[in-house]
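Q&A FORM
Asked by: J.P.
Topic: structure of Pur operon repressor

PROVIDED:
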Amino acid sequence: MKIRRSNRLVDITRYLLEHPHKLVSLKSFSEQYGAAKSSISEDLSIVKRTMAEFGLGKVDTVPGASGGAFFAPRYSKENAEKVVGELVTLVDDPSRLLPGGYVYLSDLLGRPEILREVGQLIATQYIDADVDVIMTVETKGIPLAQAVAMYLNKPFVIVRNSSHITEGSTVSVNYVSGSSKRIKKMELSRRTLKEGANVVIIDDFLKGGGTMKGMQSLIKEFDAHLVGMNVFAEGQFEGERLVSGCTSLIKVTTEEGPNDYLKAEPGNFLTRVFTEGEN
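REPLIED BY: S.T.
REPLY: Here is the structure written out as C-alpha cells.
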C-alpha cells in the first residue's frame, strides 16, 4: 500500500526517534512505504532539516549499498541551557539538604520527563565519541544510566556492592569512600564488560569521588577504557577529590546549621560541551 508523504514523514520521524544511532537502509523504508528511494531520500532531507532547526539532533546518511540513515540525539546550546536552567530551579531548594552535604534528588530522578531530558543532554556530549557501554553503581544512578544508554543505543552495566548468584563469577575491587574514608567493595560480573570496551560512567551525585574512583579501578581490571564521567549533580567537597574530569549538570553549594543553606547553579556541562569545541 502506497503511503502519502505527510504520513511517511511522521512515521519516519517516529522510527528514528525510537531507534537512535541505528542505521536504517533506504531500501527498508522504500519497501515499507511503497515509495522510490529518491522519495525516501527527500523525506529524510526534510526530517534532517527540521531536527536541526529545532535543535533536537542530527540525521546523517551513509552512502553505498549497505548505507542508509540514522538519527543522533543532540541538544542545541539553546535547548541545553533551557533544560539545565530548569533543573537548577528544581534543585535550588534548602529543604533538599541532607546530612553530610548530600542533596535529596530521588523525586526528580523518578520523573520520566526529567530522565528523558537528562539522557539526551548527556548523550549530546558523546555524539561523536566511540562508546560501547554505560556503567553505573547500584544506587539512584541506575535510571540515569538507562536513559543515557537509550539515547546512545548502547547497553548499560550495573556495578554491585555485593555479588548476586545470578551474576556468575565477578571481578571485585576495594575502594576508599571520598567522604567517609571507609574501605568498601564493588563487584562486576565477568561476562558484563569486554576487554577493550569504551566506557562512560554515570552517577547521580559526586562528592569525594570514591565511588567514581572505584569504577575506574574496575574498568582497568577489565582492560577497558574510560571515555568520560558524568553526574547529575556535583556537591562541594573540602580537600582534593579522588577523581578529576567529571562533567556535572548542576553544582550545589550547601551549609548545614540553624539555617540550612543550599544554592544550585549550572555545573560544567555547558562549558565542556559547547565552549571547549565539541559542538
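FOLLOW-UP: DSSP finds eight helices and ten strands in the chain.
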